[in-house]
Amino acid sequence: MFTLLKRSPSGKARLGRIETGHGTIETPIFMPVGTLATVKAVHQTVLRDTVKAQIILGNTYHLYLRPGMDVMREAGGLHRFMNWNGPILTDSGGYQVFSLSAQRKLDERGAVFKSHLDGSEHRFTPESVVGIQRDLGSDIMMVLDECPPYPCDRGYAVTSMHLTHRWAARCKAAFEETGPRYGHRQALFGIVQGSVFADLRLDSAKAIADLEFPGNAIGGLSVGEPTDLMYQMTDLVTDILPADKPRYLMGVGTPANLLHNVARGVDMFDCVMPTRNARNGMIFTRNGTINLRNSKWKRDFSSADDGFTSTLCRDHSLAYIHHLFRCGEILGLELASAHNLQFYHWLMAEIRTRIADDTFDGWYEDMARTLDRRL
């Protein structure tokens, strides 16, 4: 499934390729988040032809609640339901369930939670989330895990981590006892936890690696901890996880976060940030970030990023996009969302080029500082 093509000569950055039943993914890669079978404000044709997304992410919790698995099975799976013929990764719903701290209960069997839609009660078990993801037909499935909050005490982190390991083993058993529904192969990834305790992260990475999943994720980061701690935990974990399998850092992050974590050996990323920030008027450019609602752009008839190929930059001025946001026009959300995703994919392509020509290690820190600027 995964081919490691090259390592950075003086660091941990990696160039790779993942083969799936719906196409090839060149890594490092960013995955747009399509929570409810849609990447918000971005049509599938734009994702495919303009953004050139190689893979997108769907959410088990939300799709389980609506439209529900009966509809999903009738549709022939998530790919057909949303008319997306590229690879899809689905998370297990664990993060969403555990974020409902006041509406869920944990036990060895799994998690009981109340729907945020109507208050109805449901249960997720390691076995049931594998079944749901079989119904969805995602190319890459995730095990059920518990994502501990930050901060949490060490005792909680230990208990949570061991529960995640036991659930991961049960997910693997359920995966091996079942098969795909729609004629294409599926893969199941494990998830490392351990909060921000270095020894727990190392223990968890070893335990998950020993389960021999075809890919491994790093969960429980970017949940409020200082950025330096996130980098430290990632650096520890990537020293342990197998080099011949893809490494996925869940829910991360800013363009600078991507650069720093690629440098620490991560291959895959997802985050709602590019589309969520776009809907709130923030776009990312090669010179830094721009708040489109700021009145300083009212009479600025230049491009947000001259020479960048997004429709927002190529066809419109900052003054026009500022006007759309100030007036609440939907076109502003669409243009900004597509732009941010196109920017993230440009950045990942640039990273891959830099790793390929051995210039990544001397470039990424300066680029991260540039991208963190506010314009």
Class from helix and strand fractions:
alpha/beta
Number of helices: 15
How many strand units? 16
The CATH first-level class of the largest domain comes to Alpha Beta
N- to C-terminal distance = 42 Å
For the CA atoms, what is the radius of gyration?
20 Å
In percent, how much strand structure appears in the residues?
Answer: 15-25%
Q: How many distinct folded domains? A: 2
Assign the CATH topology of the largest domain.
Answer: TIM Barrel
What are the segments in which pLDDT stays under 50 over at least 5 consecutive residues?
Answer: none
Largest beta-sheet characterization: 8 strands, parallel
CATH architectural grouping of the largest domain: Alpha-Beta Barrel
Largest sheet, spatial ordering of strands: 4-14-13-12-11-10-6-5
Give your account of this protein's structure:
The chain is of the alpha/beta class and 375 residues long. It has two domains: 2-271, Queuine tRNA-ribosyltransferase-like (TIM Barrel); 278-371, no CATH class. It is built from 15 helices and 16 strands. It has helices spanning 44-51, 60-65, 69-75, 78-82, 94-99, 126-136, 154-177, 198-210, 227-238, 255-262, 273-279, 311-315, 318-327, 330-356, 364-371; strands spanning 2-7, 14-20, 23-27, 29-31, 56-59, 88-91, 104-106, 111-114, 121-124, 140-142, 187-192, 216-218, 247-249, 268-270, 282-285, 288-291. Strand 13, helix 10 (255-262) and strand 14 form a beta-alpha-beta unit. The radius of gyration is 20 Å and the shape is globular.
